[in-house]
Amino acid sequence: MAPSGFPVRLGVNIDHVATLRQARGVFEPDPLAAAHLARLAGADQIVLHVREDRRHANETDLRRLRETTSLPVNLEMALTEEMAGMALSFAPERVTLVPEKRTERTTEGGLVLTPDYLKSLTSFAERCKEKGIRVSLFMDPDPVMLGRIPSVGVDQVELHTGPYSQAFGSPGEGEEFARLSAAATQVYRQGLILAAGHGLTLFNLPRILSLPHLAEVNIGHSIIARAVLFGIREAVSEVRSLLLAPCGGGSR
Ligand code: PXP
User: Fold this and answer.
1) In angstroms, rounded to a whole number, what is the distance separating the alpha carbons of residues 122 and 164?
2) 110 CA → ligand 1 middle, Å
3) Do the beta carbons of residue 41 and residue 249 sit within 8 Å?
4) Residue 1, in any domain of the structure
5) Orientation angle between helical segments 31-41 and 15-24, nearest 10 degrees
6) How many structural domains compose the chain?
7) 17 in a domain, yes or no?
8) Is pTM, for the whole model, over 0.85?
9) Angle at 217 between CA 205 and CA 223, to 5 degrees
């Protein structure tokens, strides 16, 4: 349960559906269809990472998402002029700022809040406020970096659970969890909403749910990976049924 007594919110990241679509350069699987199905299954928000290189989701996905889903949208993005313009024009309910490297396969670490970054963040957060967009920061469980978060303009912190998920089941798990737990308390004391995400699965999630003050988790890869496997039986059966139908298959 979240501190409010409500269940922890679930954000479903649909980038991975877009990755599959881009692998073929066609129109399916459509991430928007995935968003609608996720909503029907109980997702509380849809997460979309529009990367600078558009390697998976793009602005058309974001526009269609804004136009057709009733769920809140959490746009993950790097804080660049181009992305800031996109966020302000589509006005998702939330923006999660992440660091971005062209060569990385997925987000590799939390934000580094340098004085320059904080300057850009403050000005972006002011513009977000005018548009009613909430600002979340993707952060490592690092007390020094968390301590640099400005006291105005930022609503939420999403703690990077990647190192915990990698250490899960190994002797290092306890230490990674302890870092997250201390960070969770710090985030709460700084008056910010607490989210967690990256590398979360059915197996490593239960321990994360015991983090103090947790309000939200954002999950992508493991949900889509399981969806692909669970869907194979049905997809193959559909084709098999067609082959068994009176006009399908057999010698002519
Ligand atoms: N949260 C953030 C900030 C992310 O960058 C990602 C990956 O796009 C996720 C959550 C979801 O991570 P995963 O796909 O490993 O579940």
Assistant:
1) 30
2) 11
3) no
4) no
5) 150
6) 1
7) yes
8) yes
9) 65
Residue 12 DSSP SS3: strand
- pLDDT, one tens digit for every residue, the chain (252 residues): 665 677 999 999 999 999 999 999 899 999 999 999 999 999 999 999 998 888 788 899 999 999 998 899 999 999 999 999 999 999 999 999 999 776 666 677 999 999 999 999 999 999 999 999 999 999 999 999 999 999 999 999 999 999 999 999 999 999 999 999 999 999 999 999 999 999 999 999 999 999 999 999 999 999 999 999 999 999 999 999 999 987 765 555
Q: Which two tokens stand for residue 113?
A: 């809040």
* Six-digit token string for 82: 């181009």
User: Which residues are identified as catalytic?
Assistant: 49, 76, 198
On whether the CB atoms of residues 176 and 207 are closer than 8 A, the answer is: no
Mutate which of 10, 44, 107, 164 for ligand 1? The one with the most ligand atoms within 8 Å of its CB, which is 107
CA distance 77 to 98: 6
Structure tokens at 36: 């609608």
Determine the distance separating the centroid of ligand 1 and the alpha carbon of 237, expressed in angstroms: 32
Q: What is the CATH number of the domain that holds 219?
A: 3.20.20.70
In a domain, 3, yes or no: no
Tokens, residue 176: 């990674």
> Does the residue 249 lie in any domain?
no
Amino acid found at 124: F
- Domain boundaries, position 89: 9-244
Side chain identity at residue 122, one-letter code: T
